[in-house]
């Protein structure tokens, strides 16, 4: 590429920001637009990246208006009528989707691509940590902020490995060229894009056909698709029992820790301790450990890496904890994620009352999976539902949080606005409180934390 300047429309997205950081660290000029100011956009600005929050073309820095020097990167969430995007199109700038840019990077690397409807951010971040802290090393483009490194971008100058999330939305992962790939889960999602569950599954099958000859597919033994592998591509399974090639056995809880033995096709690593002791992370760790083992990370490096992994921002984050209250925040936004998250929280805090505040993400997802959301949320003792976060969508007639609430069978259930949430919490007596969702619910976390600190002094 001959470009010296990169302009990102939607720079505040977790995937876009990692690529923006990549080019900034490499010494290129980087700027971008986003709709709202967030902690992530503030961090990017502090690193020296210019960001505008106004759509007007006049807010674009003038040195990014030279089309021979500037490449435009966009996210699929940006509407086609966006003023800046319209300007760049009309003036014949080169425009690439985020997935195309990531695809370019994977073509020149040994790309380890982690795919799945849910679990891919955790699995890719554990994989990246295992490789990065070992003698193998790696770069990584992550879908979350790693607590170990306080960033979603890892760079290595002495390793050709790169860990990336393979995003199924808009078939983005079809742009990638994996050296190795993991498929964690294929629970139907994004049916507004795919139209049917069958088309959704077929897209994962096509993804397997992109693995380079001599590469490897590692697939969850509970994933039922027909991989379309090129000649010379190996396949392994993973799971939680001995019918898989890589698996965990002797899983146990001891004094607040989760330990297990990791079994590979040729040996066993005993007494592995999870750095983040939630049961949902056992299977994700098995996938990550399999990938590390296949790429030459030593058994001792694997054991150390898993024990020192400290999690991801908004994945089972314990925000505030006293003898009287535990407050956690989690990104879960798909029915399967919610089910597994709530189950893990129940195992961590048996016998305690669990109150969940959930913000549905997307009208289309709410419409397609209202019943499944209700079933997952019914595992809670008390459910508080916020209005649907629209993200890139316009409202769909008849679709609201009521669609979920009516089928929730939990003992207590309530609709609330964000503005009335703290007043509602005043009427309740939460024991374990959890906020769930992928929208802007994270902006409420500091308020809720301060409220709880005052209430439970």
Describe the 3D structure.
46% of the residues are buried. The chain has three domains: 5-97, Rossmann fold (3-Layer(aba) Sandwich); 109-308, UDP-N-acetylmuramoyl-L-alanine:D-glutamate ligase; 317-455, Mur ligase, C-terminal domain (Protein-Tyrosine Phosphatase, Chain A, Alpha-Beta Complex), CATH 3.90.190. 31% of the residues lie in helices and 24% in strands. It has 14 helices and 21 strands. Strands 8-7-9-6-10-11-12-13-14-15 form a ten-stranded mixed beta sheet, sandwiched between helices. The protein starts with a strand and ends with a helix. A hairpin with a 4-residue loop joins strand 14 (257-263) and strand 15 (268-273). Helix 5 (120-132) crosses helix 9. It has 457 residues and is an alpha/beta fold. It is globular and about 65 Å long.
Features:
Rossmann fold, six-stranded mixed sheet, alpha/beta, UDP-N-acetylmuramoyl-L-alanine:D-glutamate ligase, ten-stranded mixed sheet, Protein-Tyrosine Phosphatase, Chain A
CATH homologous superfamily classification of the largest domain: Mur-like, catalytic domain
Can you list the strand order of the major beta sheet?
A: 8-7-9-6-10-11-12-13-14-15
Backbone CA Rg:
22 Å
Helix percentage range: 25-40%
Structural class: alpha/beta
What is the CATH topology of the largest domain? Answer: UDP-N-acetylmuramoyl-L-alanine:D-glutamate ligase
Shape: globular
User: Uncertain regions: pLDDT < 50 for 5+ in a row?
Assistant: none
Oligomer: single chain
Head-to-tail CA distance between termini: 57 Å
CATH class of the largest domain: Alpha Beta
Total beta-strand segments: 21
What's the main sheet like? 10 strands, mixed
SS element count, helices: 14
Roughly what is the average pLDDT, rounded to an integer?
Answer: 93
> From the coordinates shown, what is the CATH architecture of the largest domain?
3-Layer(aba) Sandwich
Strand content: 15-25%
Number of domains: 3
């Amino acid at each position: 590429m001959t470009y010296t300047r990169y302009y990102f429309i939607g720079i505040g997205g977790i995937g876009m920001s990692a690529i923006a950081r990549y080019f900034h660290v490499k010494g290129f000029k980087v700027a971008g637009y986003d709709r709202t100011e967030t902690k992530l956009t503030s961090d990017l600005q502090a690193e020296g990246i210019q960001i505008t929050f106004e759509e007007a073309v006049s807010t674009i820095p003038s040195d990014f208006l030279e089309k021979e020097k500037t490449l435009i990167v966009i996210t699929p969430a940006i509407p086609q009528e966006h003023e800046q995007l319209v300007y760049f199109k009309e003036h014949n700038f080169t425009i690439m989707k985020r997935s195309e840019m990531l695809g370019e990077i994977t073509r020149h690397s040994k790309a380890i691509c982690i795919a799945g409807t849910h679990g891919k951010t955790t699995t890719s971040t554990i994989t990246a940590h295992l490789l990065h802290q070992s003698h193998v090393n790696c770069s990584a483009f992550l879908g979350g902020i790693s607590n170990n490194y306080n960033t979603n971008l890892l760079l290595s100058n002495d390793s050709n490995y790169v860990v990336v999330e393979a995003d199924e939305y808009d078939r983005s992962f079809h742009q990638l060229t994996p050296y190795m790939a993991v498929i964690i889960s294929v629970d139907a999602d994004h049916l507004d894009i795919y139209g049917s569950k069958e088309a959704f599954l077929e897209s994962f099958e096509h993804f397997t056909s992109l693995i380079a000859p001599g590469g490897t597919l590692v697939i969850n033994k509970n994933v039922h698709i027909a991989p379309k592998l090129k000649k010379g591509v190996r396949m392994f399974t993973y799971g939680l029992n001995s019918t898989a090639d890589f698996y965990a056995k002797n899983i146990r809880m001891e004094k607040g820790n989760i330990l297990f033995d990791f079994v590979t096709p040729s040996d066993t690593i005993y007494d592995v301790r999870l750095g983040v002791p939630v049961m949902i992370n056992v299977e994700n760790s098995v996938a990550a450990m399999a990938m590390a083992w296949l790429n030459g990370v030593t058994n001792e490096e694997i054991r150390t890496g898993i024990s020192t992994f400290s999690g991801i921002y908004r994945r089972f984050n314990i925000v505030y904890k006293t003898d009287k209250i535990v407050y956690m925040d989690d990104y879960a936004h798909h029915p399967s994620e919610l089910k597994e998250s709530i189950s893990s929280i129940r195992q961590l805090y048996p016998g305690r009352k669990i109150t969940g505040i959930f913000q549905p993400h997307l009208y289309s997802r709410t419409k397609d999976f209202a019943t499944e959301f209700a079933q997952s949320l019914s595992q809670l003792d008390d459910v508080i539902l916020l209005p649907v976060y629209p993200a890139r969508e316009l409202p769909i007639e008849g679709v609201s949080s009521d669609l979920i609430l009516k089928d929730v069978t939990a003992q207590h259930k309530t609709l609330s606005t964000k503005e009335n949430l703290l007043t509602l919490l005043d009427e309740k007596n939460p024991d374990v409180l959890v906020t769930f969702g992928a929208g802007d619910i994270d902006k409420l976390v500091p308020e809720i934390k301060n409220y709880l600190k005052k209430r439970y002094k």
